């Protein structure tokens, strides 16, 4: 066994556990343990939230979105679709028209974000997984239906069981001078509510899906579209496919990954995760001050023992390592317990949902967690660095002071 570690372990497991030094060491272990546990749990929750957002948005967003570089619409043609579908790994392409419209149901009105999609949307989109009422297909028996966000449904007091009322959609026309008849200032089309979806508050409160043919008629778009939604095969790398599509279409189109539509949100989550990590590491660092003081006082208490070791020929390196090992034992014992508790509680939350979100939601009822190996490694590395910084100064000072006394 490593001799310095043997001595350090003897000091740590000494039967004299009621002195002040041992109390400080125990407090250090407890604080490091709690800090490490909180660090693992907090990082796991942020991982879970990011994964939850990606899964929720994945039910709504395509893998790749293609929009015009200039303006909000473009003339669609078969050449565009051929260039997109020529890329290996394309599962499907949906033509999209998206704009703000006014909707009316009975006597209730509000603005919504209408998204007209082609029938391929039924095959590739994950929105069918978040339907809470009604049926999913947008077109059934050649009749177009609207899929409505749950928030929009609440605002309009919309009922799928009432077949006597349709959803009326209004969109302003390009008004020429001299037009005084209000009915000529807007387009009006009716559509039957077909289903209700619940994804996330922003989408639930704003979006309505309709067939792209309906959207073209309402907006008088003719052959124009606002974007293409591209869906990929599961084994394809979206970034690689994106580059190939961009090369095929040229600079007149912007090609974005679906997750890039929410890049700001993901950045905020990563920044919050970083700050939480730094704050909890700082707490562990403050706890390590106790390790510094306990080692300093241990040096004073074991002055006679260390003098004997020096007299028997012990080197300054050996004395220094004794106290470095002592500090490491205190810190790693606390960190080890903290890791076990943090991982255990995270796994319990992941499988049994011990802590709820505190609100009714169709998406998830408890806080999501996801344990990542990189977070555990970062935590361990942080504890190691803090331990070394807290222990090295008392250890060096002890070895130097005793070596000086021995020489004298």
From TrEMBL:
Which keywords fit this entry according to its UniProt record? Cell membrane, Lipoprotein, Membrane, Transmembrane, Transmembrane helix
Membrane topology per the entry is: Multi-pass membrane protein
Q: Which segment of the chain is annotated as a signal peptide?
A: none
Give every ABC3 transporter permease C-terminal domain span. Answer: 278-400
Question: What residues form the membrane-spanning segments?
Answer: 20-46, 274-301, 322-348, 376-396
Query: A GO term (biological process) for this protein?
Result: lipoprotein localization to outer membrane
Q: Which GO terms describe its cellular component?
A: plasma membrane protein complex
What subcellular locations does the record give?
Answer: Cell membrane
Domain named MacB-like periplasmic core: which ranges? 25-152
Query: What InterPro entries would the database entry show?
Result: ABC3_permease_C, Lipoprotein-release_system, MacB_PCD
Pfam families hit by this protein: FtsX, MacB_PCD
Say which family it is in.
Belongs to the ABC-4 integral membrane protein family. LolC/E subfamily.
Q: Give the protein name, as stated in the record.
A: Lipoprotein-releasing system permease protein
